[in-house]
Amino acid sequence: MTKLLNEAIEKQVREALAGMKEPVQVLFFGSQQNCPACGDTRQLVEEVAALSDKISLAVHDVDADAALAAQYRVDKTPGLVIAAKDGDTVTDYGVRLSGIPAGHEFTTLIQDLLIVSGRDSGLGAATREFLKSLEKPVHLQVFVTPT
Amino acid sequence: MMAMESHLVQAEMVEATEFPELADRHHVSGVPQTTINDGAGHVVGAVPEPNLVAAILEALQ
Questions:
Q1: pLDDT for B22-60, tens place per residue?
Q2: Mind listing the pLDDT tens digit for each residue in A82-116?
């Protein structure tokens, strides 16, 4: 199979991921139906996961693993969950990527891996205080395009 | 990265061209656009943290 990441990009990504602190669990959710981007997305995250021993990748199907998809509130494919992994414990921070993280969004994928790995949001003190005071669920959907 | 600070926050990056119906429903015309709680609030562009906090507060009213 032809690789999606060429050698130069692989080298760059490997260097970036060398900055990872703690292990990260990536959950990929694909579908056999109506998902033209699933194949490439799965291959892309497999290639990225191979560049750091701090990344564990689990591949799932939204239909075959419907209960798990519901648990992680994944309702789109391809869907990625970027979670923390400490031993056998996976901590879901609520970080999701829906659709292929290509182009500019490839950078987002790498940044998400680094930030979750660092276990620190990097947000300002006031923002952290506000978020701690929340009493109702907040679902943020950031619409982006690959270019 | 707000999702990391509260288990009540879920942050989802959505590739708009793959989910055009959802993008249309939220009238996405420029990116990035952030939709709060399925349309209770919107933020267009990459804004500073306090602006996003204000938009979330307003959407929760």
A1: 999 999 988 899 999 999 999 999 999 999 999 999 999
A2: 999 999 999 999 999 999 999 989 999 999 999 99
Query: Pairing state of beta strands A55-61 and A24-30?
Result: parallel
For the stretch B7-25, pLDDT in tens is 999 999 999 999 999 999 9
DSSP string of A19-41, one letter each residue = T--S-EEEEEEE-SSS-TTHHHH
Q: Do B12 and A116 touch (CB under 8 A)?
A: no
Binding-face residues of A in 23-42 toward B, CB within 8 A: 37
Is pLDDT above 90 for A41?
Answer: yes
Domain ranges of chain A: 7-132
Q: Note the CATH number of domain A7-132.
A: 3.40.30.10
Q: Within an 8 Å CB–CB cutoff, is residue B61 touching chain A?
A: no
Structure tokens belonging to residue A45: 């995250």
Cα angle vertex A146, ends A29, A127, to 5°? 80
Q: Which residues, in sequence order, are CB contacts of A131 under 8 Å at separation 6+?
A: A123, B2, B5, B6, B9
What tokens appear for B56 in the block? 């979330």
Closest-CA distance of chain B to residue A3, Å: 22
